[in-house]
Write a structure and sequence with these properties.
With about 950 residues, the chain is α/β, with parallel strands linked by helices. It has 26 helices and 33 strands. Helix 6 crosses helix 15 and helix 19 packs parallel to helix 21. Monomer.
């Protein structure tokens, strides 16, 4: 009697297919908020701090974003990069205590509150002027505005998965912060570095305040131009007397402030006699003009000069001691104008002469101070002319060129006019042009006794920069920086707590006064400075407030943010200097700059050990984002559509040292990369269903393929740890993705599916594979945890469900050094090359319709004597996923391929029948009486 069943059996239930609750779809916009709630519930941040007690601290000091609007994509890039570095440091065994902070003072917020006053549809219906509002009321409105946006941004940062001490965040407007800032200013006052001086600074007539270089943007601007004549009154050479020195300027409004003309010692100047002029020219026949010879041809065109002759050439040095008349002489400008040598004068453009207005330019000011020139105050803080600009009083400088033209035309000193489109400084807030204006300001001396510049340059040499190019950028900024202007003429900020003695104009340098100010600010905030009786209160007994001027300027917000280390690190007992400062590359002239100078001046050391800079975010075409172009990618929209992990993947998949690009197509690409990573984790989880430690196979007993995977794990572990210590993540996440996609999904998983699905549970091969899959799950979850913070947590909990557990409470897994095997790795590089050749041969047969899958293939593999012993026949069948492989030694006639592989593979249909369970085509199928449709391996598994 035949014991075989009469009907075919369904063996699908006997195959160990992957099983996992981890879904294929991420559905991140829904899952991530729930994960955030879970982290709050399990006190993730607090528990990290508790269990990290005693570890080596890691301090990434947060550069404060400005609290005045929703986050933009640049904010997301910055905070995600910080979060990845913090999380990686924590998992590498450090105590990464991260305190996020905000910059809350300054012009942008003040400007927004003023806009509300001016808005006819606002709550004040346009009926309130800032100057009519009591300063304490105005400051209260600014504080409320900043507090609102701080809370909004805090929630938006947290939604991105950024982990930090959100409850203990810092803000520059906190009372303790304001007190610390006042104390830091006091250090510079007491050590003599802080002084009051008259110097031209970038001035915004719209906002009525000095601006820092970091608050300046450069945009194309059309400037009126002017060629003016200065009649020579006295000169060493008699033929120069009565000639006109011709200057060219793009700021005609500075002519009332002119007090000298600069020339270049080595420039060749032509003394030109004008014989004829073009119609409409402002010049006259008989004019004698001095112009730089290289620039004469262009000047002829600009001024309409016809026939002319050059009487002689002179070197600029021959003009030493010459005196000219102001072009508006006889109209209130009756002073002499000296001709002075200036090393900044060139023949790049203009006439080779530069008109000098000491109150309106750095070079002008320096030359004027060196030669004792007066510095007239010709321009008010709103950009209108003062009484020191006779004939132009009350006129706005940007509307003055026509009046200047007319006055000089009437005086016979206007040589030509024109227009020039050029890059010109604008306020980053109002977007309006700025001017150079000399006003009394408070400065920190870069040189002198404190040697701030020299010490800062030394500190830069000792600092780690990522990328290295940042070192030269910051060095150049510090080396060329003039004395630091820290005063601003506004209301919302920390006042400069200084008193000037009216009789001597000297600042009061008294540590007791500073101490009283700091104590008051700590209790009441900086508002204490503005309260009635504040001057006498801080001066204390023994001094009369009537004898002192209380300074009402506020300190530059860059000084505030530059001193955050004082009230974030030191005040909280955190290590100083910080391990890392991380911001955009524009902060070489901003926060890195001010932080370095403030800390050097106050403490003598840099506030950081390392500085990392990242690029800016552009659209997919490499354009700057703007609402008008409609190319803005908002992080809020990305998290709503894709989830924060896609945004985090985009950041870390990019080279952040360069400018990054983002847009709809790029986000789709990132979503596809994420899908591959997620599917890798899902397959791992499914294939580990029911795994216990009892299955674990010792390393020495593992097959070569498994040991090769562990070698790759050791390589990636080293790369992860290097990134965690060096902060250089370039290429790390692409390497992880490539490992998941190429090494695992397309190679190792593909090969081991047969063993995992069809081998007996206790087989060495299956247990070995699951041993390695266990390692892979633990490592990949940990490695991806800093980047894909939500997904890594989900993948961890899917296997290790624990109401209180988290992958983020763990360190990177220990990877034994013994897993590194370079010889084995080299061998399997060769095996994969041969496998690729076989796979191509099988694919050609499949495309031709001769076979349907690789398991229908029988492969005759010809290998050279070096490769033929690499694997045995059974191993090759497993690696190439074919049902039968035959090996033969390549003959002497076999020629090497283009790749240098002495390999060939011929593919035919495998003999035998298809196993109903594993689908291999084998001659042994049909030999079993009980299970005639199974191979011997599957028969044994099913029977057991």
């Amino acid at each position: 009697m035949n014991d075989a069943p009469s009907e075919p059996r369904d063996y699908r239930g006997t195959v160990f297919l992957p099983t996992t609750p981890f879904p294929m779809r991420g559905d991140l916009p829904k899952r991530e908020p729930a994960m955030l709630e879970r982290w709050t519930r399990i006190r993730l941040w607090e528990r990290l701090r508790e269990q990290s007690n005693g570890r080596t601290p890691f301090i990434l000091h947060d550069g404060p974003p400005y609290a005045n609007g929703n986050l933009h994509i640049g904010h997301a890039l910055n905070k995600i990069l910080k979060d990845v570095i913090n999380r990686a440091a924590q998992m590498a065994g450090r105590d990464a205590d991260y305190v996020p902070g905000w910059d809350c003072h300054g012009l942008p917020i003040e400007w927004k509150v003023e806009e509300e006053y001016r808005d006819p549809k606002g709550k004040y219906q346009g009926g309130v002027k800032k100057d009519d509002v009591p300063v304490l009321d105005f400051r209260a409105e600014c504080r409320a505005y900043a507090a609102h946006w701080l809370d909004v941004q805090r929630e938006e940062f947290a939604r991105l998965g950024v982990l930090g001490n959100w409850a203990g965040r810092y803000a520059t407007m906190d009372f303790a912060s304001e007190a610390a800032i006042a104390g830091e200013i006091g250090k510079f006052l007491l050590n003599g570095a802080l002084y009051r001086g008259l110097r031209p600074v970038m001035w915004s007539p719209v906002e009525k305040t000095a601006l820092a270089e970091a608050e300046i943007e450069y945009h194309d601007h059309v400037s009126p131009t002017l060629w003016g004549k200065f009649r020579v009154l006295r000169a060493a050479a008699e033929d120069l007397v009565g000639a006109d020195v011709v200057i060219w300027t793009t700021t005609p409004w500075t002519m009332p402030g002119n007090r000298a003309v600069a020339y270049g010692d080595e420039i060749d100047y032509a003394l030109v006699h004008v014989a004829s002029v073009a119609e409409g020219s402002l010049l006259s026949v008989g004019d004698r003009l001095l112009v730089a010879l290289p620039l004469l041809p262009q000047f002829e065109k600009d001024a309409g000069i016809g026939a002319h002759s050059i009487a002689r050439l002179i070197k600029g040095a021959e003009l030493a001691g010459a005196i000219a008349a102001h072009p508006l002489r006889g109209h209130g400008y009756e002073f002499d104008v000296p001709l002075l040598a200036g090393d900044f004068v060139t023949t790049d453009a203009g006439t080779g002469f530069v008109h000098i207005a000491p109150g309106h330019g750095e070079d002008d000011f320096a030359l004027g101070r060196a030669n004792g020139l007066p510095i007239p105050e010709t321009v008010n803080d709103d950009g209108t002319f003062t009484v020191h600009a006779p004939g132009f009083e009350g006129l706005h400088v940007f509307k003055a060129h026509t009046a200047v033209y007319d006055a000089m035309r009437a005086a016979g000193t206007l040589a030509a006019t024109g227009k020039l489109t050029h890059s010109y400084p604008h306020s980053w807030r109002s977007k309006k042009p700025v001017i150079f204006r000399a006003t009394p300001q408070w400065f920190i001396a870069m040189d002198g006794d404190t040697q701030i510049r020299a010490k800062a340059l030394d500190a830069i040499a000792q600092t780690q920069f990522v990328p290295e190019a940042g070192r030269n950028r910051l060095h150049a900024m510090i080396a060329g920086k003039p004395d630091w202007c820290i005063s601003r003429q506004r209301s919302w900020g920390v006042p400069i707590p200084v008193f000037l003695h009216k009789a001597t104009s000297e600042p009061l340098r008294d540590a007791a006064v500073i101490a009283r100010v700091v104590a008051a600010f700590a209790e009441e905030g900086a508002d204490a400075w503005y309260k009635p009786g504040a001057a006498q209160r801080f001066l204390g007994e023994g001094r009369d407030a009537a004898d002192y001027e209380q300074i009402m300027d506020i300190v530059d917000v860059w000084f505030e943010s530059g001193s955050t280390h004082a009230f974030v690190l030191k005040a909280r007992g955190m290590p100083f200097p910080a391990d890392l400062y991380l911001e955009g590359s524009d902060q070489h002239r901003g926060w890195f700059n001010s932080s370095l100078l403030e800390s050097i001046g106050a403490n003598g050391v840099a506030p950081f050990k390392a500085v990392l800079t990242h690029g800016f975010v552009l659209d997919e075409q490499g354009r700057k984002m703007s609402k008008s172009l409609g190319n803005v990618t908002a992080p809020q929209q990305v998290t709503e559509q894709y989830g924060a992990d896609i945004l985090r993947l985009w950041v870390m998949n990019s080279d952040t040292a360069l400018d990054l690009r983002i847009g709809p197509e790029i986000l789709k690409q990132q979503a596809e990369l994420y899908r591959r990573i997620r599917n890798t984790l899902r397959w791992l989880l499914g294939s580990l269903d029911g795994f216990t430690d009892a299955e674990t196979v010792a390393y020495a007993e593992l097959p070569e393929l498994e040991r090769w995977v562990l070698h790759r794990v050791s390589e990636l572990d080293a790369r992860m740890r290097e990134a965690a210590s060096s902060y250089d993540w370039s290429g790390v996440v692409p390497a992880l993705h490539d490992f998941c996609n190429s090494d695992l999904s397309a190679f190792y998983f593909d090969i081991r599916k047969d063993a995992l699905y069809c081998d007996a549970p206790d087989s060495l091969r299956r247990r070995s594979a699951r041993t390695v899959l266990d390692v892979l799950h633990r490592c990949l979850c940990a490695w991806f945890a800093p980047v894909l913070a939500f997904t890594a947590e989900e993948a961890w909990l899917a296997r290790f469900p624990d109401d209180e557990g988290s992958i983020h409470l763990l360190d990177f897994p220990f990877v034994p050094e013994g897993w590194r095997d370079e010889a084995l790795a080299e061998k399997w590089v060769r095996v994969r090359e041969i496998r690729s050749r076989v796979t191509q041969s099988i694919e050609r047969k499949r495309a031709a319709g001769e076979i349907k899958s690789s398991l229908q293939a029988a492969v005759r593999l010809s290998l050279n004597d070096r490769d033929i012993s690499a694997l045995d026949v059974r191993e090759w069948e497993t690696v190439v996923i074919a049902s039968k492989v035959e090996l033969e030694l390549a003959g002497p006639s076999l020629t090497a391929t283009a790749e240098g592989l002495e390999t060939s593979a011929s593919v035919t249909l495998a003999p035998g029948l298809k196993c109903d369970r594993c689908w291999r085509v084998l001659e042994e199928v049909g030999l079993s009486a009980l299970h005639p449709t199974l191979c011997r391996r599957c028969e044994a598994v099913v029977t057991s």
